[in-house]
Amino acid sequence: MILLAIDWPIVGIKTLQFLLSFSILVALHELGHFVAAKIFGCRVDKFYLFFDPWFSLFKKKIGETIYGIGWLPLGGYVKIAGMVDESMDKEQMKQPPKPYEFRSKPAWQRLIIMLAGVIVNLWLGFFIYSMILWNWGDQYLPTSEVKYGIATDSVAKSIGFKDGDKIVSIDGKQYEKFRDINKHLLLRKTHHVTVDRNGGQVNIPIPDNIAKTLIATKNVNFITPRVPLLPIEKVLDTASAAKAGIKSGDKIVAANGQTFQYDNEVRNFIKSHKGDTASLTVLRGADTLNINTPISTDGTLGVYFSVPELEKFFTMKKLSYNFFESIPAGYTKTWETLEDYWLQIKLIFGGKVAAKDSVGSLITIGSIFPATWDWQSFWSLTAFFSLVLAFMNLLPIPALDGGHALFCLYEMITGRKPSDKFMEVAQTVGMILLFGLMIFALGNDILRLFR
User: Fold this and answer.
1) What's any one GO cellular component for it (predicted)?
2) How many domains does the chain have?
3) 75, 85 contact by CB (below 8 A)
4) Does residue 321 lie in a domain region?
5) Both 96 and 151 in a single domain?
6) DSSP at 173
7) Residue 315 belongs to some domain of the structure
8) Are residues 444 and 388 in the same domain?
9) What angle do CA 321, 325, 330 make, to 5 degrees?
10) How does DSSP assign 194-260, residue by residue?
């Protein structure tokens, strides 16, 4: 039943975008290691996009290096002679060091080689963000323009927010961009939010566990701009709504005698009447129809409501950048993205968010891409994941670049080089940790699919 419920064309589009983005990031990351190794005279035996256990999809030897594409899209690698890496080539390490091997180079050169991939990903994220701002600029909804107030879900209501509240400030600070409000409440410690409610100001205290609650309920955007009623975009053929006579383009204006003005009121009514039969008043063109339809036990009608186009309801603010202006703006965007990601990591390691609710595998990453091919979204996500890849590779785990860099720094400070045997054990432990994390993340995603 799960396989039948999946919209496979959308999955295909998302998968293609993910594979293209991931290939760009991995190839350029490994290219950073490759170029740095060549500059310092190291021999590179292999350059691979994706992993190749047992066989390769493609490989060709050019000079001393085999270039190839593996079949397992979990990353990529360059095999540098004389280095303890994913290949675990112990035979090579038993031989006397050669001048062209990684282990024969000074610690500072080995450090640069190990950090080169991270540096490339940092520069790539910065470059893409700058080019996005140059080409498309930035458009956002000013908080002051949210004229209908906010739409709240059950979590927001439990805290004290109400539909129609207008955000004034967070801990006394006003936010120009409405999109920054949810991000602040999720990532940063917040004491209270001040709202305008019917002309008067109300302070709403924010609980310390708000981040954990939002991630556990999979609703980090729990405060959204309230918009007028929206038409139904699609009705599933097998849904009770279709059998009752509801069609695409219909607009639900009332139910059980309760009149609606805003889109979230319709959604909230449906969710709060699970398993009931509702008497809906539907506007279809110039006609007003009364339709009785059952609501499923999970609180759905089997319809997709239109996604609100904010430009139709609000005055958006558009920022344009020339080439030279896009450079500092891209730097600011890069720094803000890294800071926000670091705060997310702190939530996990600080125990404020459960790992099972926040850690995902390639399935989660792929699902983030849009259902239709949109180049601005594609490049924005590619820039974001490039910075994530740089950050994650800096973690001091032996199998990652950060672990190798840590050993190089230790050698530079103490003058003592870790033995090859120690490096082999450390690499093995690091790979076990990484594989364990990948299995945990994949298991999380599979459980979410079944839920």
Assistant:
1) membrane
2) 3
3) no
4) no
5) no
6) B
7) no
8) yes
9) 90
10) EEEETTEEEEEE--TTHHHHHHHTT-S--EEE--B---EEEE-TTSHHHHHT--TT-EEEEETTEE-
